[in-house]
């Protein structure tokens, strides 16, 4: 079995949060799918609410606290990311955007990402396509084709079955991307050192 590490980023504000609930269901389905493919999967969940103050400080000072820096570095090392945000005013939350502003522009290049969101009504669902997907397109991630939106009515007995179908479809697509990903070994910066004479010459 090959090991795959999935990081779940959830921007829910309340406790309990429907955003966290959706994130957990997506992660569980992705782990199941990865295991069916023969991969051992581990999941780490990042609650952005817990890092809100550090994110605000980083936005004002340009420097991340040690705790926030560890979280950001963990995202860069993930084999796949599940990103879930509540929708406010037809877009992702400010907390969600502030976190991904703290991620280095190349950190998620070619990284599989499953995007999902929660909102009061289904009319907010297009925010996944006109706001969230372009964000990860800019970061050059590989975004799973199916995005999952959960409105308030999806958590009732009538809608939960349909939500489950969407979750499993998206998770299977995401797991296929994560499972087939081959990661290049990190480049050693000392493999090709600049000659000392060149450093002295200022060239």
Notes on the structure:
GO terms for molecular function: oxidoreductase activity. Keywords: Flavoprotein, FMN, Oxidoreductase. It comes from Nocardiopsis ansamitocini. This protein has one domain (2-201): Rossmann fold, CATH 3.40.50.360. It has 203 residues and is an alpha/beta fold. The model has no long low-confidence stretch (mean pLDDT 90). It has helices at 18-36, 52-61, 66-76, 94-101, 127-138, 160-180, 196-201, and strands at residues 2-10, 39-47, 80-88, 91-92, 112-119, 142-143, 148-151. Helix 1 packs across helix 6 (160-180). Strands 1, 2, 3, 4, 5, 6 and 7 form a 7-stranded mixed sheet that branches. The chain is globular, with a radius of gyration of 19 Å. Strand 3 (80-88) and strand 4 form a beta hairpin.
